[in-house]
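Recall from the previous lesson that a structure prediction takes nothing but the amino acid sequence as input. Here we apply that procedure to Delta(24)-sterol reductase from Nocardia tengchongensis. The sequence below is the only information supplied.
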Amino acid sequence: MASYRAIPPDANVRLAKKTSNLFRARARSTAPGLDVSGLTQVIAVDPEARTADVAGMTTYEDLVATTLPYGLAPLVVPQLKTITLGGAVTGLGIESTSFRNGLPHESVLEMDVLTGAGEIITATRDGAHAELYRGFPNSYGTLGYSTRLKIELEAVRPYVALRHLRFHDLRELEAAMAQIIADRAWDGEPVDYLDGVVFTADESYLTLGRQTDEPGPVSDYTGMDIYYRSIQHDSPRPRQDRLTIADYLWRWDTDWFWCSRAFGAQNPKIRRFWPQRYRRSSFYWKLIALDHKYAIGDKIEARHGNPPRERVVQDIEVPLEHTADFVEWFLREIPIEPIWLCPLRLRDTDGDRPWPLYPLEPARTYVNIGFWSAVPTAPGQPEGAANRAIERKVSELDGHKSLYSDSYYGEDEFAGLYYGGDAYSTLKKRYDPDSRLLDLYSKAVQRK
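The prediction returns the following tokens.
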């Protein structure tokens, strides 16, 4: 509160954080940032109630390290270690439990929020601030910042047994995904975790995870072996693998999915000497930040006589039945591979669209599709041409796009997609009456 009051009244309130998982460039600010350095720990775990009270800027790395000794984990653990709980709730998060556990904000029982009005209020599903509880997800800090969250936890076992199923046809993969989600099982075995990777139109995989207590050898993808390469195989039978629960939760972090290859970290000759403590998403993100600051990549392209590249770093959701439609279009139009698939269904079925700023339909299955790279630009193309084409295709297929990266929507189009009718303006008037916080369009599209 003291830090909030120290920010000049005519300056927008912005977080002072050392790490971020956002990929939106932002205008510089000369005003002091909001000091959240004291909000980085787990406050308490109740193993009997299976709940945890957590400060808003606590990373999932620290949260999971605290809950696993109790045999518990958050219902959804986003893929990267330095994603914060507050960030996943206000900006959305997803992982391979989302087909059964929804999104991180759905496991929040209550949260304390520092609003734009400079008050700390407690928001719950049915309390006096229920509309803020509902409107907080996908608000990206434009309504306030969570200082404490009480969340549900679930029991987990020490190991995860994996089956990697190969598909030569995206329509067959889509059908298999639908069956697995409906049955919560495949070929007689339960499925606790589900995600997938598409390498090409005729090489794609679903990875099915099953929690187990059975002891035995486990794989390690924090050293020379690379997790996403372990998925690939030519056999008609699933490739099997086993990981500890901790290594499974962080299987994508060591190589930032597959993005570490851009830095040479997957080259065995380089990887051997790359310090293990730097094989993690937060370090690669720092390298990306340096590239953005000094345009290193564009300068290298220019030396080779190539145009600048357009950054295409996005996660989108489309209804399950449009998964193959989108992926086939994407593989034809956007030269990026691999891409990630992660199905989700909302847990909350209260009301038509219970989370107004990201209005997924209850009882409908969606698939998150993630792609993170850059594509060549063509002379005469407008800025963000590839991203804009993706936005149009997603809307055409009745989907939605996360806002952690670049967006190019017009203001009216954006409002129709993300403001939930009058929900957002009503919340802004109540919880940020003096506009101390940026509005969502200014932040997500105009990069202010």
